[in-house]
Amino acid sequence: MSLLSPSETIAQQSLTAPQAELADRIARSTPGDGIHPTALPQLQLVRCSRPTPCTPNVFEPRLCIVVQGSKIALLGDQVYHYDPLNYLVVSMTLPMMGQVVEATPEKPYLCLRLDIEPEQIAGLLLDTGAQAGASPGAGSARAAYAARVTPALLDAVLRLMRLLDEPEDLPVLAPMAMREIFYRVLLGDLGHHLRAVAMHDSRPQRIAKAVELLRQRYLEPLRIEELARSVHMSVSSLHHNFKAATTMSPLQYQKQLRLHEARRLMLTEGLEASAAAHRVGYESPSQFSREYKRLFGAPPRAEIAQIRAAAAG
Fold first, then answer.
1. Where are the domains of the chain?
2. Which residues of the chain have pLDDT under 70?
3. What is this structure's pTM?
């Protein structure tokens, strides 16, 4: 059995009370399972009353702080655990696998998500001159990472949540609270990941721009040379750095975006598989079905039926 050091024990104890208050506030603001918007467009609250299967999802750039229960996210062969002691940061849009692993109706999984806007981080760096975290060359180049929650970060998050009950203070004080939250992340051991994406003309920022261009043009045929020119990189450098950040090539990334969009169209708009496939750029329904099954684990019609049955049950 591993034992915590005295300093770790003190730090863990200092997190308990804020986490309990956060859990209570999120539970009161989330009457049912799902993702709940708040008065702050950047902030969403999540509740889940039971463990979930490990399923593909598109993770947007955001900070995820769990205050009760736990979840894992998978990017390639890397597994990220986030729970009340660890938070997750995704610095660019990534197709990943996600699974809630600890949740019950009596003690549901509770999480808050704060969207990351690179301009916001860049402004913070400009104003503070923050050079937090290890050097950009240290550790993994991937665009997702988990780090330990600190009492200072949790305190800033709690103050943001309290503001939801003070709507007259929200417009003035919420930007200050969010600014402090991101500042605390930048001060963390892995803050260089977030800093690099916001720094003008850095390699991670170029990859983030390539990701955004692929998101905007995912229905168009991929022209890798044009994409490389748009982000001022050679084709070989783009391939290498794109895969280091996302674990996939630009073509694989585009394919996953298309499949996720087709899934959304079938779920929310009721399109048949062939119509959804055509809408996202597939000319061959059989190729679409094969690639859909490879990503989601079942052919389109069967997988959509499973989701609807689970939601109805």
1. 6-198, 203-248, 252-312
2. 1-15, 129-140, 312-313
3. 0.85
